Please model this.
Amino acid sequence: MDLEKESNPQNQNSTNFSGRNWKWWIKMVMSMVFVLAGQASATLLGRLYYAKGGQRQWIAAFVQTVGFPILLPFYLLSSSSSPNSTTSGNTTNQTKSPSFLALTMVYAILGFLIALSSFLSSYGLSYLSASTFAIIFASQLGFTALFSFFLNSQKFTPFIINSLILLTISSVLLAFQPSSSSLAGVSKAKHAIGFICTVLAAAGTALSLALSQFFFRKIIKKENFSAVLDMIFFESFFASCMILIGLFASGEWKGLRGEMEGYELGKVSYVMTLTWTAISWQLFQIGAVGLIFEVSSLFCNVMSALGLPLIQVFAVIIFHDKMDGLKVVAMILAIWGFVSYIYQHYIDEHKSKTSNSTENNANANGVVVSKPPV
Model:
């Protein structure tokens, strides 16, 4: 790992965007699409599960993590083709791998946070409408900024602060639409429980994102696709095992057959709803870890916040919800906030290229350029 990046994590965001080629941007676009599409489809399918007769919070939580086996072929190929060392000239640079115990602790901690957040979010979604859930879950952005500030020395610039404010306002605006009211048959007490669970789920998810970036930098210290797959695979494995324990301990598994038979859309639709929910969450997970690995946990959360108004659009198309003025304004603010964040990184990249060009020209002319102390 680059020593300058390691010693000065505040410069991490600016260095991440400098000198990237078209292949890197393709990976970035794919990760962003996975985050946006995965989050929107998984949230809507989760609401569909409850709306059509589903009542098992542990099952809804389980499908959020159990999709990781679809990555097994990619994981095996990546593990077999990943080199243990890189040779440059006569020098062989080997990155010391963390111990088995350290990696186990990392994946177990992240798995626990994911399992807890998955259960809390599934519990909250069972008592809230999709729009209300998305609005409350937008608090994840603020939690991530807070955790990233302490764990990853996140640098806040005016454009990033502007982005966070706009994205937060765009989500808060959605609270004033009629569809944000309580669901029919849900008491005020259950609505309050759903609200609290969703806020806690947002905090847990934000902490897991910030810790993922922290563990990548401090413990894993590998910048390759294999390391990303390792994190996704094993943290999801630990999370699935923990949720599975909760499923059997709670006794919810005993009523699965009856729930399937009583599902309004039929048995096949019941299975397909849960299956595609699992696949959607896994796509989101792949994109999220990819963005954390390439940029930062805060950028990943900005993309997640950008997807919240998109859930409203899909709700209009699929569930024929009314598209009012507040939703349009919220979408515009979300896009504005996203552009503001991207523009900050464009400025950082431009400054980095200008600085490197000046330094190279000075070195070519025999002038020694001294860098200011960090």
The first strand starts at residue 85 and ends at 88. Residues 1-18, 85-93, 367-374 have pLDDT under 50 and may be disordered. The two ends are 18 Å apart (CA to CA). Residues 325-364 form the longest helix (40 residues).
